[in-house]
Amino acid sequence: MCYTGPVVGPVKNRSLTPVQGRVKRLAGPARARPAPDAALIQPIKKTRIAEEIADRIRVLILDGTLPPDRPLPAERLLAARFGVSRGSIRDALRLLETIGLLETRHGQGTFPRELDVNRLVAPLASILAYRRDLRDELLDVRRMFEPAVARVAATRVTEEDLADLQRILDTQRRKLKAGASAIVEDTAFHAVLARATRNRVVMRIMETLNDLLIESRKRTLRQKGRPERSIQGHEAVVAALRRRDPDGAARAMHMHIDQIAELLQHDAAPRRANRPPSLGSNPPSLGGNQGELRRGKPAS
């Protein structure tokens, strides 16, 4: 197969091996030799050739120069065009395959993958899925993201969306009266709100957030008064949507998330208080003069 695609140039004029030589002394008066542990001499980092190659190929994929229906040039040809070793080319292709931009088809070669929303959001989902301890940071994400979603939804919401949101609220009310869990409806509310933006990326990100919020919703919805406050927060958002009030929808969503954060803090406080101290751990420093604090005097 003859490659007729774009011509790529070498990766700058950098050597792939470190240049051997002596480190010249600075001109000036003689100085005392530093101690061996002074760490004044640091190792020289190698140029990240593979990452630079991967970045160039990534740009060619994203701008459509390398389409999904055509294989990449052979490793030998890419190495010659970039002016690097075939090993560097293989490392670059592995990087791109890891992040989902390339796929290897047996007997056919390496092809760019068709870009879609799932591959765009997948890295975010992977990071958050393995760091479920980042609860505060996740709440910050919600404060930044969900009020903006509500704002846009207020300008694009349809009567069908409003009807779906109202059905969810009605079901929440019935379950609240019956003392049943409404986690499914809580999750569905935010999903329909994202759908009202008519933005597939927003819908996918909201789906990811909903997956990560299951555990925190289980905790908070068991608290006394939490289901009622959740419904009230949702009703305030829907009321703003009915008025087509973007600012009101954003404010209502922000208040809803702040209430959730407050409940999570109350939930975490008793568990922190009941946690036994670690063996051998020192009490945290209170700052100031500890002796004066023990004598009842305020620290200066």
Features:
single chain, 300 residues, mainly alpha, Arc Repressor Mutant, subunit A, Four Helix Bundle (Hemerythrin (Met), subunit A), 2 domains, 12 helices, disordered C terminus
Helix content: 55-70%
CATH superfamily (homologous) name of the largest domain: GntR ligand-binding domain-like
Radius of gyration: 29 Å
Secondary structure category: mainly alpha
CATH topology of the largest domain: Four Helix Bundle (Hemerythrin (Met), subunit A)
CATH architecture of the largest domain, please?
A: Up-down Bundle
Number of helices: 12
CATH level-1 class of the largest domain: Mainly Alpha
Please give the alpha-carbon distance between the first and last residues: 80 Å
- Which strands sit side by side, in order, in the main sheet? 1-2
Compute the average pLDDT: 76
- Strand content is under 5%
Residue stretches low in confidence (pLDDT < 50, at least 5 long) are 14-25, 36-40, 42-46, 278-300
Shape type? elongated
